[in-house]
Design goal:
Elements lengths: L2 E6 L10 H9 L2 E5 H11 L3 E5 L4 H13 L4 E5 L9 H7 L7 E5 L4 H9 E2 L5 E5 L7 H13 L3 E5 L9 H9 L8 E6 L7 E6 H4 L8 E5 L5 E3 L2 E3 L4 H6 L6
Parallel strand pairs: 1-4, 1-5, 2-3, 2-4, 6-13, 7-8
Antiparallel strand pairs: 8-11, 9-10, 9-11, 12-13
Length: 251
């Protein structure tokens, strides 16, 4: 029986891929995915059959991968970051009943929140929320409601898809919503092209972040009331100092 692997490839750098993901890609004779993501790994995978589609043709892409596996070929659907975090795992499983006999194995990868967080230091040490600013599949009012709720609850917030050619100004909008309940000096971080050529990072205030430009290859971190800059690092303390002083909430 052929297997369809839904593979999180992390940022696309081979060294940041799990060994399990790498083995699956080498094992499969067919690789499916969004053109940009397939191009990241094509160089070292060599001669294979590649099934690619551009953005916004996700259902077609998943159907191609499932049909390939149904035809008896071990196939890998590649996803940037983690296969289940804004990846194709959900859609593949939604379509799976149409392809009886296909076995699906979902393999995790290093999602942008984690890879970028490591570059910044330790911004996600405590509770955090991940929110995509893309309104292609989610209404803007729902995105704003989620931003507002996360900020009011004092979560560290990680923003995916903060802007694009079509969605100029979305990052500034998100910052304006968060500024309703978080102070302008809140420590934030911004990371571009994680694990790829042109990688860069910056730690700045929420007020400064509101005026920054971003694109689809940018991941944004907005700290909570405890987040601070320590040297060159963005850090959200877990609360161990309070535990040692006897003021911990632990019972």
């Amino acid at each position: 029986m052929a297997v369809l692997y839904v593979v999180g490839i992390g940022p696309g750098k081979r060294e940041m891929m799990t060994a399990e993901a790498e083995k699956a890609l080498e094992r499969c004779s067919v690789i499916a995915g969004y053109t940009v993501y397939v191009d990241l790994i094509k160089g070292w995978l060599g001669e294979k059959e590649y099934l690619v589609t551009p953005m916004r043709r996700e259902r077609e892409r998943c159907a191609m991968a499932l049909a390939s596996a149904a035809g008896g070929k071990d196939t890998a659907m590649v996803c940037s970051g983690d296969s289940g975090v804004y990846g194709m795992a959900g859609l593949i499983l939604e379509l799976l009943p149409q392809y009886p006999g296909v076995k699906v194995t979902v393999l995790p990868g290093v999602t942008a929140a984690l890879a970028g967080g490591a570059l910044l230091g330790a911004p996600l040490t405590h509770d955090f929320a991940v929110i995509s600013l893309s309104d292609c599949l989610t209404p803007m009012e729902k995105i704003k409601a989620r931003l507002r709720a996360a900020a009011e609850a004092d979560f560290v917030i990680c923003l995916y898809n903060p802007s694009s050619k079509r969605r100029q100004g979305y990052l500034g909008m998100a910052c304006a919503v968060i500024l309703e309940s978080q102070p302008p000096e809140t420590v934030c971080g911004i990371v571009r092209n994680i694990g790829r050529a042109g990688q860069s990072m910056e730690i700045l205030s929420l007020e400064e972040l509101a005026g920054r430009e971003a694109d689809m290859f940018t991941t944004v971190y907005i700290g909570n009331s405890q987040t601070r800059k320590i040297g060159d690092y963005m850090v959200t303390p877990r609360g161990y100092a309070a535990q040692e002083s006897g003021t911990s909430f632990c019972r």
